[in-house]
Amino acid sequence: MRGTIFGMQIRLQKVIASSGLASRRKAEAMIAQGRVTVNGKVVRELGTRVDPARDHVKVDGRHLEPGQPHVYVMLNKPKGFVSSLSDPEGRPTVKNLLPGVSVRVFPVGRLDSDSEGLMLLTNHGDLAQALVHPRYQVPKTYLIKVKGVLADEEIKSLERGVELEDGVTGPARVKKVRKAEQNSWLEITIHEGRKHQVKRMLEAVGHPVSKLIRVRFGPLALRDLAAGEYRYLTDREANALRDLVRSRTNSETGEQHRSARNKARVSSRLTRRPVESLGVEREPRVRQAHHPTRLSSPVESLGVERSQAEPGRGIGRATPHSSRVSMRRSA
Ligand code: URA
After folding, report:
1. DSSP states along 139-187
2. Cβ count near 108 (within 10 Å)
3. Please, where in the chain does CATH 3.30.70.580 lie?
4. 196, 207, 210, 213: which to mutate for ligand 1, most atoms within 8 A of CB?
5. Domain 10-63, what fold?
6. Distance in angstroms (rounded) separating the CA atoms of residues 225 and 149
7. Atom 7 of ligand 1: nearest residue by CA position
8. With a cut of 50, which residues of the chain have pLDDT below it?
9. How many Å lie between the centroid of ligand 1 and the Cα of residue 260?
């Protein structure tokens, strides 16, 4: 197990998740199904704590593999892919877009299958859990195309919070990007992650969304990563994610929700470390995925980088020493 110390008692589901075998939720299901033994005895109790350095944990009769180094992947999810690793309906998933990632990484949060843009995937379970937890208020920015043009009052109402069936939304930031006759482009930043939230917010003010691209997630920006491509985070980006969670764990908001003991535990799990030491390249590498898709929206006029508004255009090849994808303008 990664960095365990003798005498440390850790929840069984966390021990399984940090071995890279399954997400924490799937590990809980495995325990409940009686597939997990500790020192030869089946354990179904989710609260069970074990010392990974001493106890023998097996899943389906097999010892857990030692923990993998942390790996962080940024993917530009195209439309038509579901943001989970498997789909009961057999639709293509983000897993199909990560052909060269041999480590089991899990999506951090969701994007609808008809949404596009930045998805983070990682095997760093604690960080992933924190990044999607409402307590940490991680900002997510979306570039959206909506029907019609929003009046200033409608923008203010989105910014203050709108009434949805699951409650009033938190404060948002909305920026006009471009107007057309029938529709307009906006950039909206929210700090929650409710299902279909952006679409429902815009629907509530009478301007349905016809295109949604996530362009930022916390400190990460999609920039020129083309649709269907992925790259590993840089050392700096991975540390920025850990710093974000750590700073919010230590902030007043965190203070109200956490005991001092918990804070120390989370902070220590999020220790900054160079990515090279984890066996991951410093330079972000871009890989072309199997099914790049093309969009047909206007670009430069949106005031955003080409790849964000029109990610699939002229997908280039990764250069060995750069994260840049060369973009060819199509006629
Ligand atoms: N909000 C939505 O409505 N859909 C997404 O995919 C992401 C945010």
Report:
1. -EEEEEEEES---HHHHHHHHH--EETTEEPPP-EEEEEEE-SSEEEEE
2. 24
3. 69-136+219-246
4. 196
5. 3.10.290
6. 29
7. 111
8. 1-6, 252-254, 257-258, 260, 264, 273-285, 288-331
9. 34
**Catalytic annotation, residues:** 112
Q: Which residue shows structure tokens 């043009």?
A: 149
Which pLDDT tens digit goes with each residue over 11-67? 899 888 878 788 888 899 999 999 999 999 999 999 899 987 788 999 999 998 766
Amino acid identity for residue 220 in this structure: L
Q: What pLDDT score does 107 carry?
A: 97
How much is the pLDDT for 47?
A: 86
CA distances from 254 to 25, 64, 134, 165, 293 (A): 23, 33, 11, 27, 41
The pTM of the whole model exceeds 0.70: no
Determine the atom of ligand 1 nearest the C-alpha atom of 112.
6
What separation in Å is there between the alpha carbon of 82 and the centre of ligand 1?
12
Whole-number Cα distances in Å, 29 to 33, 45, 122, 147: 6, 11, 20, 43
Residues having CB within 6 Å of any atom of ligand 1: 111-112, 115, 196-199, 212
CA dihedral in degrees (83, 88, 89, 91; nearest 10)? 40
Alpha-carbon distances of 298 from 26, 93, 142, 168, 310, rounded to whole Å: 42, 27, 16, 33, 7
pLDDT per position as a tens digit, 264-275: 455 555 655 444
Euclidean distance between CA atoms 155 and 241, whole angstroms: 29
Question: Rounded to the nearest whole angstrom, what is the distance from the C-alpha of residue 197 to the centroid of ligand 1?
Answer: 6
Q: What CATH number was assigned to the domain covering residues 69-136+219-246? A: 3.30.70.580
Alpha carbon distance, N-terminus to C-terminus of the chain = 54
CA 200 remoteness from chain centre: 20
Right CATH for 139-217 from 3.40.50.1970, 3.30.70.1560, 3.40.50.1110, 1.25.40.340: 3.30.70.1560
